[in-house]
Amino acid sequence: SSAASDVYKRQVKDTSVVKADDNCVGRFIAVEEGTTTVAIKTKDGKHSAVCAVTVNPAAGTAFTPLAPNI
Predict the structure, then answer these.
(1) How far apart are CA 29 and CA 66, in angstroms?
(2) In whole angstroms, what is the distance from residue 53 CA to residue 32 CA?
(3) Taking the model in full, what pTM does it have?
(4) 3-state SS string over the chain?
(5) Residue 10 · residue 42 · CB < 8 Å
(6) CA angle at residue 68 from 66 to 70, to 5 degrees?
(7) Dihedral sign, CA of 25, 27, 31, 34?
(8) Which of 55, 64, 69 is nearest to 12 (CA)?
């Protein structure tokens, strides 16, 4: 079987809000509060999906962004 990175290509429009998890193709990690678009497609171009993602802090808690070098 192929590694996930050999099969799928991921793109995040604003990586200051969300970043792709290098260890899991279907996982994106919240970086800070905001809205962005994420896309995933097969490298052969036959299948793709795009969606808007909004990161909100949990109710009653402060949002602590990840360090920029993570």
Answers:
(1) 10
(2) 12
(3) 0.66
(4) CCCHHHHEEEEECCCCCEEECCCCCCCEEECCCEEEEEEEEECCCCCEEEEEEEECCCCCCCCCCCCCCC
(5) no
(6) 70
(7) positive
(8) 55
Residue in 9, 5, 2, 3 with CA at minimum distance from that of residue 50: 9
Residue 13 and residue 38 in contact, taking contact as beta carbons nearer than 8 Å: yes
Q: Using pLDDT thresholds of 50, 70 and 90, give the confidence band for residue 1.
A: very low
* Each residue's pLDDT tens digit, 13-70: 999 999 988 887 678 888 889 999 998 888 888 999 899 999 987 665 555 555 544 4
